[in-house]
Amino acid sequence: MEVPSEIVILILSFLPRCSYKSFASTCKQFNAIFWGSVKQLSISPNKHFEWKCLEKAKKIQSIEFVEHEVLRKPEAWSVISTLSTLKTLSIWGEFPRHSFDGDAFQHLARLTYLETLSIRYYVMDNLEFLTSFGRLKRLYLFLVSFTNGCSQTLSKLTSLEHLSLWSSTIKDETCETLSALSNLETLDLSYNPLSDNGIQCFTRLTKLSQLDLVETRVTSAGVLKLQQSLPNLQIAELPGNPLGASTRRLELLKFP
Predict the structure, then answer these.
(1) Which H or E run includes 21?
(2) Candidates 3.20.20.100, 2.60.40.10, 3.40.50.11720, 3.80.10.10; CATH matching 161-256
(3) pLDDT tens-digit profile of 132-145?
(4) Domain 1-148, what fold?
(5) Which residues pair with 210 in a beta bridge?
(6) Which of 94, 98, 169, 223 is deepest in the core (most CB within 10 A)?
(7) pTM, whole model, 2 decimals?
């Protein structure tokens, strides 16, 4: 017997409004079945949540922490590192950005199946942990601030196919390091202080098909110059961006 993912998400989403201990007690007789079958979890902030329960989630593939202080709990990472089937990990901090201890991720190298990582609202000074995820295809950093040294680490993630650095203090010099990601198909650099000069190095990204530059300093002249080398590249044109009508229109990229 397997518990539908939709039910698990619904139950855990309402945990802040009820007693987790009461919930766990009610499900005690179905404990092994419940945790042994779930594949997708969305966990809201709740001081009663027992991290050791995750040790029983042997089939888990996706976990989302919403406004959770998980990064500040070493015991949580110790448990998460045992989830060898995990493919998607999403962590939402609280606005404004929280400080981030990159060392907390160093022992997560056991997550060899991780393909998607999404982090929002954090200040990061160490991205080296990302190099442990050899199968990482999708990396989404929303409203994440990090130092210039971190961009050098990003250049090592050559397995990436989809990358979003939405409002993550990316500057022109960072684009040079991103141009080493030869497998990129989509790239979102919206809400960053980029100029025409910064994006020209993307001519090396021959697989790139979608580039989002909403609310940047890039002009239509800069876009057209880039498209001369990448004629199939689609660029977003939305209100607030100085891109001209001559650029191609593209619906905003939808990232999880």
Answers:
(1) helix 20-26
(2) 3.80.10.10
(3) 888 999 999 888 77
(4) 3.80.10
(5) 186, 234
(6) 223
(7) 0.78
